[in-house]
Design a protein that fits this description.
The chain has 311 residues and is mainly α. The protein has 13 helices and 4 strands. It starts with a helix and ends with a helix. About 2% of the residues have low confidence.
Length: 311
């Protein structure tokens, strides 16, 4: 048990370190090619940080446990907003860029609303997956449109050789995925050692575990006081989770709703709307230590509710 706890600490420290490598590599690529950092974080980093959710959904399809696909995505999205933004805001206030308030966050809310509509029949069908694919294609087109119309800024970013920056991004993403899995495995082993129920482990450790890449990136962005990246990592990952992963999984098999999904669907959209609301509360366009109190209370209430359902 002691060894497992030590390994858990080591894996998490390595996760933070490699997220630092990822941040540096992605920022250098954006600066070198005159591409908006927003584009990098809404595509490449969002793709990589959503990989754990994709792996879990592919496994659930392969093992015919497709009811896990929707709970995996919803729990991860909710943790991304309520947990990650809460932790990041404690470390350093999160700046909400104007374009993100006007474009990306409303699209995040829209995708959460569409998911509610598609699940009126208690299932994501292949037709629903096609709808999600169209929305995802539009999002990708939008990000490339940003890249085309964006002009280079004067932000101070360490430039490095292209091959090195690319290697940093690849290795950083690889450890976010692999390291996240090691952390989850260690945490589950420790929880089982203390006799915690499997259901409780599922709605807490595993759900948070799939959000570890976003957590590591956001924490590192806060440490570097570059919190634009933190909000982009969360918004981009949640859009990818809803549109890309559910599209990919939904094309393989119908995804049935699970008992209690209605609560999770509404918490997901309300959490998304909270980000938009925070742009206009207290200090404008800033999510600071006042808002994180709301986030932590919302998160603890939600986890408490889920725990009560499974214990």
């Amino acid at each position: 048990m002691f060894l497992s706890i030590c390994l858990l600490i080591v894996w998490f420290l390595l996760l933070i370190k490699w997220s630092d490598v990822l941040v540096d590599g992605a920022s250098s690529i954006a600066k070198k090619f005159g591409v908006s950092s927003l584009v990098i974080w809404l595509t490449i980093v969002a793709f990589g940080s959503s990989a754990p959710e994709l792996v879990i959904n592919m496994i659930s399809w392969y093992t015919w446990e497709t009811d896990l696909a929707l709970s995996n995505i919803l729990w991860s999205n909710i943790s991304n907003i309520l947990l990650i933004l809460w932790v990041t805001a404690i470390l350093y206030p999160i700046k909400l860029p104007k374009t993100t308030i006007k474009k990306e966050i409303p699209y995040l809310i829209f995708s959460a609303a569409i998911l509610i509509l598609l699940l009126f029949d208690k299932m994501i069908s292949r037709f629903d997956a096609v709808v999600l694919s169209v929305m995802f294609a539009w999002f990708i087109w939008y990000t490339f449109k940003i890249a085309k119309n964006w002009t280079s800024s004067d932000e101070e970013v360490e430039t490095m050789p292209t091959w090195k920056a690319g290697l940093f991004v690849v290795l950083g993403l690889a450890w976010l995925i692999g390291g996240g899995k090691l952390i989850v495995d260690s945490a589950v082993f420790i929880a089982e050692g203390f006799g915690l129920p499997q259901a409780f482990i599922g709605v807490t450790i595993v759900a948070i575990g799939t959000s570890l890449p976003e957590l590591a990136v956001s924490v590192m962005a806060a440490i570097k006081k570059d919190t634009d990246m933190a909000i982009w990592a969360v918004v981009g990952s949640n859009i990818f989770n809803t549109l890309w992963i559910l599209w990919a999984t939904g094309m393989l098999a119908n995804l049935p709703a699970y008992p209690g999904i209605e609560i999770d669907l509404w918490v997901n959209i309300i959490a998304s709307m909270l980000i938009f609301a925070f742009a206009f509360t207290f200090k404008k366009h800033l999510l600071d230590r006042k808002e994180w109190i709301i986030l932590v209370l919302a998160y603890l209430t939600y986890v408490g509710y889920l725990t009560a359902q499974v214990l």
